[in-house]
Amino acid sequence: MQQSGLRERSKARRRDAIEVAGLRLFTEHGYSGTTLADIAEAAEVSPRTVSMYFPTKLDIALGFTNRGCERLTEALEARQSSQTVVGVLDAFLQKEDQSLDKERKQLVADMMAANPSLPALRTPSVERLIAAVRRALAADLGLPEDHFKTRLGVATLFGVLEAHSSAHLDENTTTSTRRIALDFLAAALATIRATP
């Protein structure tokens, strides 16, 4: 049993080293200028080991973002009928803020800034989150998923998430950032709901 725990921690450390090496290289040399072999060398593992943990470079580049999308998707899909999307998002962001790895988040932000086409990619994790947000907001608004107001709500929610995420890289932000973001989202959804 103890051997199994040691093995899992060793795998997690290896995976982490590969991801950090990849993010740093993508920042320094660009996404297209970095190979899996480069990442393997920087992480001090074999290229085969990199491929075992991350089948593609994109999995390394967007892994942090994809994991966040998956956690929010799970939270939205597990919500109780009495919970609003804003309430679920509030609980999610509080939990994320408490476990935030600021160093990793900064590394991801730097990598994204150095590779501006990457944030626009819609991975399966992002697609699932968009669908979950659309379903949840449609239910909250009492509208079909493809209704203009629902789509406007989805766009607003993702804009709020982006602004909140960026604010956490600033050392001067406080927990009030989350409250401002959520109050803005709630007001926007109230406006969407009230507009004929």
TrEMBL record:
Residues 12-72 form the HTH tetR-type domain. The keyword Transcription regulation applies. Keywords: DNA-binding, Transcription, Transcription regulation. SUPFAM superfamilies: Homeodomain-like. This is AcrR family transcriptional regulator. It comes from the Bacteria. Pfam families: TetR_N. InterPro entries: DNA-bd_HTH_TetR-type_CS (IPR023772), Homeodomain-like_sf (IPR009057), HTH-type_TetR-like_transc_reg (IPR050109), HTH_TetR (IPR001647). Residues 35-54 bind DNA. Signal peptide: none annotated.
